[in-house]
Amino acid sequence: MGRSVGVLDADLNGPTIPRLLSLPAFQIPYPEDGVTPALSPEGVRCISMALLLEDGAPLEFKGPTAESFVWRGAMEAAALREFLGDIAWGTLDILLLDLPPGMQRYLELCDILGSAPEVLTVTISTPESRDAVRRAMRAALDRGSRVVGIVENMVGREFTGTAADDLAKEFGIPVVARIPWHPTPDTWSALGSLL
Questions:
Q1: Do 80 and 140 lie in a common domain?
Q2: N or C: which end of the chain has fewer CB within 10 A?
Q3: Neighbour order of strands in the sheet with 38-39
Q4: Exposed (0-12), middle (13-18) or buried (19+): which is 75, by Cβ within 10 Å?
Q5: Which uninterrupted H or E stretch holds 186?
Q6: How many domains does the chain have?
Q7: Residues 6+ apart with CB under 8 A from 35
Q8: Helices (H), 49-154
Q9: Which range marks the domain in which residue 47 is found?
């Protein structure tokens, strides 16, 4: 659609965006003027831990073992801050952030940005997912985010339910897309045109 788009894969321990964008692992250019994001065949700029680590390598932070959970949290927040502030993104129309499940990374993001970003929520169809996502959506609204829509993921197999429709009705937002278990390239193209 002619927009300049970037994707920051903020799921540091389970990064998936490079694979979805057909980017090889461990491939980030390091020019003298700063780290630049990888560029997908469609022109989407991307930064992800998957591009910084060898394929399959775990993310490991070094620090005092007695307080490893504190150090890990601080290092992950620092990595997010660096991905946002130190990457030479260039001019973007849209920067999408893929956050891991839960609220911790969202809260870190709000603190780093100084304001609450818009939220596109992802759920699977089960009642359990609906309930967890409902809590997260309420927390995002309480923090000041505008929830712009919901995506239902892994549609059409073992997971059954009406989570996306229930949440859309409750929060007055649209179901933006339903992604099947094994999406084709056409599925991703159609989703991209909606954003």
A1: no
A2: N
A3: 38-39, 45-48, 5-9, 94-98
A4: middle
A5: helix 185-194
A6: 2
A7: 28, 29, 47, 86, 87, 88
A8: 68-85, 104-113, 127-143
A9: 1-101
Residue 132: count of CB within 10 angstroms of its CB: 16
In the numeric block, which tokens belong to residue 185?
């390239």
| Distance, CA of 16 to CA of 31 (rounded, Å) | 25
pLDDT in tens, 146-185: 999 999 988 887 778 899 999 999 999 999 998 887 766 6
Domain annotation covers residue 109: no
Do residues 79 and 8 both lie within one domain? yes
Per the domain annotation, does 95 fall within a domain? yes
C-beta atoms surrounding 105 within 10 Å? 19
Supply the pLDDT for residue 156: 80
23 exposed, middle or buried (CB, 10 Å; 0-12, 13-18, 19+)? buried
Domain assignment present for 174: yes
State which of 66, 101, 136 marks the end of a domain: 101
- The 3-class SS string of 17-56 reads HHHHCCCCCCCCCCCCCCECCEECCCCCEEEEHHHCCCCC
Per-residue pLDDT of 54-73, as tens digits, reads: 666 656 656 556 555 555 66
CA separation for the pair 49, 58 (Å, rounded): 10
Residue type, 167: L
Q: Cβ(165)–Cβ(123) under 8 Å?
A: no
How many C-beta atoms lie closer than 10 Å to residue 43's C-beta?
Answer: 10
Rounded CA-CA distance 75/157 in Å is 37
